[in-house]
Structures are given as C-alpha cells and as structure tokens.
Amino acid sequence: MWVGTSDGLFRFRDAYPDEHYTSANSQLPAGNVYEIFFDSEGRGWVCAEGGMAVWNGSSLQADRFPEGFANKLKIRDICETADGDLYFAPDRGPVFRSNMALTSFSFLPDFSTSGSTATTFITQDDDHNLWFGTEKGLLMEDGKGRLHWFNNVDGLPDIVFTLCPPVTDSAGNMWLGNAHGLVKLDKLRLKSSLAGMHRAPRITDIQINGVSAADRMRKRDGKTRLELSDGETGISVGYSDLAYSDPLYGQLQYRLDGVDDTWKTASGGKPITYFAIPTGESALHMRYPGNPDTEVVLHISRGFKISWTVWAMILLTLLLVGAVSWYSRRHRVHRVRLMRLEAEAAEAASSAAAAEEAKKRNRYRTTRLSEEECRRILKVLDGIMKKDKPYTNTELKSSDLAALAGRTSHDLSFIFNQYLNKSFYDYVNEYRVAEFKELVACTDTSRYTLSALAQRCGFSSRASFFRHFKAITGQTPAEYMKSRP
After folding, report:
1. For 453, what's the count of Cα atoms within 13 Å in the CB-facing half-sphere?
2. Tell me: the pLDDT tens digits for 400-424?
C-alpha cells in the first residue's frame, strides 16, 4: 500500500511502513503528495506539489521524462482509458493526454473554449465516454469526440465538482462528489437524453443599432441571411436552446469570420454583440461548447456607401495623379530635347576640335622641326627660365619667351604642342610652382601670405595659383606646407 502525505511518500507492507521517500532521499518532487496511480504496465505515477515522479519497481525517477511532457505540473488526477491513453488533470489549465509509451502527447485544445480553468477528476465509463469534473460543471466527451456540457440546466445542484474520484456501481451508474453533496449519474436516462442535447441553438432576436430587426432575417439558398446597410454597424443576437430551462446557466460558443480567430463563449443568457460588423460578406457561427453538430450560421451582408468626403478624396487623388503624370511627361519631353541639344553641341564641339586640329596641322606643316632641333631649342628655353626667371612676370606670353630665345612663336608652339604635348602655360606654371617651393624652403613664410608668395612666383591670381599647384603636385598649397619637414 502506498500513502501520499505532506511529509513525502510511504510504502506499507503487512500494515507497517517499510519505506519513506522524500525529496531529500529520492527524486520525489518537493511538497505535498496529491495522487498515486499505477497504470496497466505497472508504473506508479506519484504526483506532488512540485511535479511528478514514476516508480519503476525499485526507485522513483523524475529525470527521464521526454522534452515537453507535463511532469513539472501539479497533477490532481490521472486516468487510463480503454484505448491505452493516459489523461492528466493539472491543478490549473487544460488536461494533458499521452500514449502509454510517452512518445505522443499534447494538451487538449477544447478545454480552452469550455470556460473551465480547473479539472478536479477524469474517469471513463463502460461506454468509453470520458468524464471531466470541473469548477464550471461536468464535461463529457463521447466516442465521436463531441463534447457535452452539463450544468444546473441538466439538474446538477451545483456546477462545482470536488476532488473526490468518481465511483461506478454494479449497475453502471456513476456517483460524483459535488459541492452540494453526492450526485448520481443514471446511465439509462443519460442515453435517452443525449439525443436531445444535439439540438442547434435558435436565434430569438436580432437588434441592429439597438433596434429589434428579427423580421429582416431571410432564408435563401438554404442559408439564414441578414442584410445591413452601410450605416448599420452594430448587431446584438439573442439565442435559446428551447429547453425551458433558466438561460442563466446556458453556454454558447460563437465566432464571426474576419473578426474572431478562435471561438468565444457567451453565458448567462447574454446576447452576442458586435459593434463593428465588417463590410461585405461575413458569417456568424454559433454552437454549444465543443459540439460541432449543433452549429448554426447567420450569413451577414453589409453594404458599402461612399460618402462625399471619400468622393472628394478620390477626386483629389485623381487630380494629383493627373498632375504628376503631366509633369512627368513634360519633364521627359524636356529631357529628350535637352539630350538632343547636348548631342548637337557635342557634335559641334567635335567638329570645331577637328577643324582646330586640321588648322594646327596646316600651321605646323610650314614649321616642321627635327627632334634634334627641338631638343636644342628646349635647352635654350630651360636655360632662360632658370637664369632670367621670366615666368615671374604675370603677363608673360608665348611671343615674349620666343623673343628671348630668338625664335618665332610658331617654333615655340610646335615644341610645346608637338614635342612636349603640353601648352605654353603648363610649361610656364611648372616653373612657377618650382619657384614657390624654393621660396618656401628658404624664406620666412610667416611674413607673407600665400597670395603674396604666389604673385612673386608669377601667378596672376590666388585661384589660378591654387588650381595649377593642385594639378601639378596633387596637393593644395596648404597641404604641401603641412607636409614639409
């Protein structure tokens, strides 16, 4: 015999305890021991405050449960069905189901919609119906998976069931512990009354924006339909099971397409209310909890009317789209025209460049110098530039330098453009830049500005100095000054 206490688990042999298991000397979870259950394979399930452990014949084990099992929950009752499944009733939350091998298990989904938060017991009758005692009534799942909810409407003295395990007598009647005493479930009367429990709920009234409109429901194509205008946004649906019972104890599940993701529960005879019915087609589904055979559907069609404000917004949008389209087309035409003008200008520039090149070739045809003569003239020019420094003259021209070298302007132009492949000003500015570097190296630069130094080197302006210095050295004058040792 096994006894669960607040001080652990005791095993008795011959009316005397021979073993005492606690969380200190075994894998028994801490806290009170609430339930002890041995399944058909001989495993002993011990349910304590801190979870479950399994007696394997020689010791308690709590570390061999598969991932995701409910072994960490406080379990109040365990039931093994004729099919070999195990059902676990936690202190709070949905019931947990597992096969005997513990390889397939999950929480029962229907308990989340039944309105129950605690299951006090689980048992199976001779007809393989599963019974769940809760604090919201008695729940039965038949062999077809349909749920039947029993409460005060069905004659229960109270909807709260205790933790006492049910007992089935020899006649097949079940005795249940209830908050108002002992309840007998008559097997024969149950079978005859189950057929009447599959009645679908009836819609007794519909209020639209607070005004009764049940006469607006129509049957068409085998469907119950309700048509609403654009301004009719809220409805309230009354219902009944026509069982001549107190609506206070009735329960109904409902769901509106496009609004509800899961079933909702209405109880106490309160109507189903929605304040914002979506436009277009939708459907309101109603059924008794967990019983799809009782489902009825109200098909709702709500019209859509465009207000003056919406029309104004549509018109404004069309005007805006038209303006953007007109501007885009105008911009595209202007861009094409601009590209054509640029192409014409480029063609003209190319023609001008070709004409200039031809003009140079004609000019140099009469001024043909040998490479030896070019080297000799260039040597004379370099000597003049280094000795006389004519480049310091900001007004220096090609003709001036040609006169100093005793040559013609055509000779110098041929040397610069054909022999050196550079312009006269590129040649002169290289000497001016070199002059600047020399001045910086041997002069107290703190006494002069960059503009003054540039002018001493022959640059006519500060902008010209900066532009040519950067082109020749790759640095600005300021960067060059900082990089000097």
Report:
1. 23
2. 988 988 998 888 889 889 888 989 9
The helix (run of H) or strand (run of E) holding residue 380 is helix 371-387
- The CA-atom distances, in angstroms, between 399 and each of 254, 370, 411, 450 are 104, 21, 10, 29
- Residue 432 and residue 457: Cα distance in Å, rounded? 5
Is residue 200 within 8 Å of 193, Cβ to Cβ?
Answer: no
Dihedral over Cα of 471, 473, 477, 482: its sign? positive
Q: What is the CATH number of domain 2-198?
A: 2.130.10.10
* Both structure tokens of 158: 């109270």
220 strand-pairing partners: 223
172 Rama sector, left if φ>0, alpha if ψ -120 to 50, beta otherwise: left
CATH, domain range 371-483 = 1.10.10.60
User: What is the torsion angle, in degrees rounded to the nearest 10, for the CA atoms of residue 457, residue 459, residue 465 and residue 467?
Assistant: -130
Give tens-digit pLDDT for 430-477: 999 999 998 888 877 778 888 888 898 999 898 999 999 999 999 998
Q: Which of these, 484, 385, 391, lies nearest to 441 by C-alpha position?
A: 484
- Mention the CATH class of domain 202-302: mainly beta
Contact 195, 294 (CB under 8 A): no
